[in-house]
Description:
The chain is mainly α. It has 22 helices and no strands. It has one domain (4-428).
Amino acid sequence: MPDPTIATIIIIGSFLLMLLLRFPIAFSLALSSIFTVLYLDMPLAMVAQNIVRGINTFSLMAVPFFILAGEIMSSGGIADRLVKLADACVGWMRGGLAIVNVLDSVFFGGLSGSSAADTASLGPILIPMMTKQGYDKDFATAMTCATSVQGMLIPPSHNMVIYAMVAGSVSIGALFMAGLVPGLFLAAAFIVYAFITAKKRNFPKGSPFSLKNLWVSLKGASWGLVIVLIVVVGVISGYFTATEASALAVVWAFIVTFFIYREVPLSEFWNILGRALRTIVMVMMIIGTSAAFGWLLAYLQVPKLVASGILSFTTNKILVLIIINAILILFGMFMDMAAIITITTPILLPIAMQVGMDPVHYGGMLILNLGIGVLTPPVGSTLFIGSAIAKLRIEELAKALVPFYIIMGIVLLFITFVPEITLTLPKMLGLLN
């Protein structure tokens, strides 16, 4: 008769081994699940069934739509107009371009919901612009990468949709609003750091403030900003589901890109669709294989073992939440966000709830924590994108990111231990009791 302990060693050990061997994450999840099922003498069809079950969810349809909308906006001139709008607002200050970088990520991240899309779209614009004005290249690149994490928190965020699906019975509208204040809090922390660093290093000022320039920039960017109204207001009011809102976001992004801004020809849409499809396939494969992997962990009672292990060590809420954050940061250094959300939520969310954390509060903490992971070596996707754009070595960029790691760590602690930061806005809007 198969031993559950040996099966647990097989699934976790083979998965970690394949990660160390740099297997693609989806293959690592699938193969470790297959090895375990074979040992347990179960039909292999169980793995396939759970993969299909993991992605056969209506609310999950929002994820590919949000990814496609972000890809369209990344290619269609919206990013450039948002840079001009932010520059018109604060570019006149000392270190204004660094603050522009923060505000652009608030605007564009709120539209795309993706750190990688934010860095890939804004990096080629802002990094050369900042270095031309006298900013250090490593600082400009680190600022661009770090500020992109805001987009994961500021609605709409497809990672919030994935978390809502895995957590179950968690309002997507409440999660969207729960991420808004932490996202702006993180932006404020970056702005303070940018201002202090600009004073210290004597970074230049931009052009003088012009009300006319602000108005022209606002008009130019307004078409893109409407997407936020479509998604956020529609979902919060209950007029749209997240899936319906994401589909409307694609339609609006298509109209704005190809019929209003018209900076790229309509024929380019097929290339955009191809790039989006590659991302969508990768994300959906990770979600599906994570579901099969997670089902096996639940079958082997690993979540119960982890919970009892942590709670036998301590029941102190502060220590428990610190341990959970440490586990998530460690996972974030090696794994993709979607996989971490899908695998760890059934394990760690019940533990957090046992010490009194609301699932919506946990979602805000989770997304920021994993946002730090996309910037950390050895597997941080945004770190690699920033490095490629600026032509900096990973080690140089990681070193320049150290102050930003500290800032994000401090903000993460605030979000973890001050639930009002996350929960006040959803409660005010009647999305939470």
